[in-house]
Amino acid sequence: MKIETFDLLEFENANSHEKQIYAKKIDEHLQKIGFLIVVNHSISKICLNNISLVLDIFFNQNENFKKKFQAPYNGYPYGYFVSESETLAKSIGNNTPPDLKESFNGGPIRVPSKNISKEAFDFCYLPTIWPEIENFKKYWEIYYNEMENLAKRLMSVFAISLNLKANYFNKYINNPISALRALNYPKITKKVLPNQQRAGEHTDYGSLTILHSLNSIDGLQVKYENNWIDVPDIENSFIINIGDLMARWTNDRWSSTLTELFQKLFWF
Fold first, then answer.
1. Domain assignment of residue 37, given as a range
2. Whole-prediction pTM value?
3. Calpha distance 65→99 (Å, rounded)
4. What's the domain count of the chain?
5. Which residue of 68, 85, 194, 209 sits 20 to 30 Å from the alpha carbon of 182, by its own alpha carbon?
6. What is the CATH number of the domain that holds 80?
7. Each residue of 230-251: pLDDT tens digit?
8. What separation in angstroms does the CA of 64 have from each of 71, 169, 181?
């Protein structure tokens, strides 16, 4: 099974007949596996370099510094999370050791002025705890805006691929509760436990996930017909995976595919 590469700009510049041909291919592919790779996405290298710069600075700080921006209590969604504080595989009932990754999570950068539920306000729109790193918040928000726009473009592609109007999903995504996560995989300094991974087996719960590797890292795998297959790391691309919500919206026409970050883990 090959994960297909999709040229977004070529699709957007195509005529209606050509778009239908593209859309049919996307639909057929996503019925088999809920992953695709997007190239020619128009996200500038300056944007990618800037977010990479501030994240490298942050993650290279010592633990005491990073913990100053830690989530203040268990269940708070945003801020810094130390390595082994999350076990993704538990979301599907697998009792594995915690994941060997650290992360910084940020929430939506705009809070809607109306039509917001108390549940969303009390969780999804909690404030992000910003690190005291020059330009961190600025570059993070620029990148968030770019990803929000890219998500809207992709949802339009998905609508066409499902024989819907291009703007069909707009009313459902006008006030996104999207979180942006930066993951870092530090050097292993202790013995790895059995079945311990960088990111354990899981599916994502939203409509779609946009993944970009700022520093090339292999090991991302997806499950297809009970076999794990590697996701290729293509330069200047984004990996898109279908989430549980999109699977539900399509009545499981498209699958929310199991994924994990598997690496040959050594300790020093």
1. 5-261
2. 0.88
3. 21
4. 1
5. 194
6. 2.60.120.330
7. 888 888 999 999 998 999 999 9
8. 14, 43, 20
